[in-house]
Amino acid sequence: MRPRDLAEFVGQQHIVGEGRVLRKAMDAGQLPSMILWGPPGTGKTTLAAIGAKRAQARFVAISAVSSGVAELRKLIDEARKVRGLTDQRTVLFIDEIHRFNKAQQDVVLPYVENGDVILLGATTENPSFEVNSALLSRSRVYVLKPLTEDEVRTIVRRALSDPRGLAGRASLTQEAEDALVAVSNGDARVALNALELAHDATGGAREITLEDVRDALQRRSLLYDRAGDQHYDTISAFIKSVRGSDADAALYWLMRMIDAGEDPMFIARRIVILAGEDVGLADPQALVIASAAQQATHLIGLPEAYFPLAEAAVYCALAPKSDSLKRGLGELQRDLAETRADPVPLHLRNAPTPLMKQLGYGKDYKYAHDYEGHVAPDETYLPESLQGRRYYVPTDLGAEAELKRRLVALGRSVRGKDRAPTGGTSGSRPESG
Predict the structure, then answer these.
(1) What's the CA gap between 88 and 8, in Å, rounded?
(2) What's the pLDDT tens digit per position in 234-279?
(3) Residue 176, number of CB atoms within 10 A of its CB
(4) Which residue among 81, 126, 191, 232 is buried most deeply as judged by most CB within 10 Å?
(5) For residue 356, what are the domain limits?
(6) pLDDT one-digit tens code per residue, 293-319
(7) Is residue 426 part of a domain?
C-alpha cells in the first residue's frame, strides 16, 4: 500500500501541498539533499522514493542500523560510476541517519558537496543533536507531523478497497474503524499492520469487529523515546502542568510517561526538584512528600509506585507556589561571579589558637543566644562589599507569609534589588521545563 506518487500520498500538506517549496522542487525534478524528521509511519521513506522517481534518479536505500563505512563507500563509488557513464544521479536514502556516528556521516559529506549523491536522511530524532552540523548545513530539514485521524482513516479505507490491499474482501464496523484510527496514534504503519493482523486473525471473515481490532493491537502505539525529544518534551509538559497548578494535566502527563516505559526514578527525581524549585518555602511540606515519594518508588517499584508518584504530583500541583529561593540563588550566583571574594570578616573567623586570637580572629563577635530574642543587634554576617544584599525575598503566599513577617520583625528588608524574571534551567537538553 505504499503510495507510488504524490497523488496517492496522504498527509504532510505543509511541505508537499500545492505551491509548497518541496512540492515545486519535486514537480521540477530537482531534488535537494534533505533530512526528513518526524515520527514513525508518517511517510519519510515513501516521500524519499517518490522524490527520487520524479528526479529520474537511482534510489538506493540503506539503514544506518545495519550499514557501515565500507558499504557506504561502495555505494558512493557505484553512484560516481553511474553518473560518469549515464549522467544519472543517485539518491542515497539513509534510514535512521541519527544512528550513524560522526565518522560515518563524514564519509558522505564530500560526495553531497560535489553532487555525486543526493542525500535523503530520515530520522525520528532531533537532527540538531544527532546530525553533524556540516552535513546539516548542506541539507534542507523538513519536519513531518503525525497523521491526523482523518488521514489515517483515508489510508485504512483505501487499504480495504484497493487491489494492492484487501480488495473489498473485508470491511470494518464503525466502532472497529474508530478504534483502529485511535490506537494508531498518527502512525500509518501501525494502522495497516493492525488491519492486516485483524483480517488474518478472523480467517478471512468479511466483517472485522471492534474485538478483532483490540486483539490485533493490544494497546495504543505511544510515541516516546527515553533519551530523545519525546522524553524531554513530555517531562517538560509535566513540569509546566505542576508549576501551573493543574493537577489533572499533571496526572495525565505522569501516566503518559509511566505507560510509555519511562524510568520511574527519573520522574521521582523531577518531582523532588519541582518541590524545591517551584513550590519552595510557600509549602515546605511539598519537599517532604516529594522525597517520601522518591523513597517509596525506590522501595516498591512499579506498578505500585503509581500511587506515591501521583500523590506527590497532585500535592505539588495544588500547593502554593514560590520561586523565591530560585531567584535568590540565581542572584547570589551572579554576585559570586561578578564581585570580588572578600576575606571572611575578622569577627566571624574561627580562633582555635592563641596566635589567631591575638590577630583579632573572632574579636567583637556577638553570641546570638546572649541577646533578647536570640538575635544579636546590629551584627553583620556578609562581607563588607555585600552589606545590604537580600538574596531571599519571600512572597505573601502560603508558609512564606509567616517567614516574611519574621524578617520584618528582625528589622530586615523584604525587598530585593530589581532583577529580571528567571525561566527554567538552561542547557542543551533542558529537563526542568
Answers:
(1) 26
(2) 888 899 999 988 889 899 889 888 887 788 888 999 999 999 999 9
(3) 22
(4) 191
(5) 324-409
(6) 999 998 888 788 889 999 999 999 999
(7) no
Last residue of a domain, one of 143, 168, 202: 143
pTM of the model: 0.58
79, 131, 135, 136, 148 from 121: Cα distances, Å: 17, 10, 10, 10, 23
Q: Cα–Cα–Cα angle for 212, 217, 220, nearest 5°? A: 130
Q: Give buried/exposed letters for 31-54 (b at 16+ CB in 10 A, else e).
A: bbbbbbbbbbbbbbbbbbbbbbbb
Asked if residue 432 has pLDDT above 80, the reply is no
Question: For position 415, what pLDDT does the model report?
Answer: 63
With beta carbons less than 8 A apart as the criterion, state whether 335 and 294 touch.
Answer: no
The amino acid that residue 258 corresponds to is: I
Instruction: Give the pLDDT confidence of 191-220 residue by residue, as tens digits.
Output: 998 898 888 887 767 888 888 888 777 655
* Amino acid identity for residue 140 in this structure: R
The answer to whether the beta carbons of residues 344 and 306 sit under 8 Å apart is no
- Give residue for cell 558499504: 71
Task: Give alpha helix (H) positions in 275-399.
Answer: 285-300, 306-318, 324-338, 354-358
Cell match 526538584: residue?
273
93 and 100 Cβ atoms separated by less than 8 Å: no
In a domain, 86, yes or no: yes
Question: Which letter does DSSP use for residue 429 in this model?
Answer: S
Q: Taking a C-beta distance cutoff of 8 angstroms, is the pair 104, 121 a contact?
A: no
Distance from C-alpha of 299 to C-alpha of 303, rounded to nearest angstrom? 12
The partner residues of 58 in beta bridges, in order of sequence, read: 90
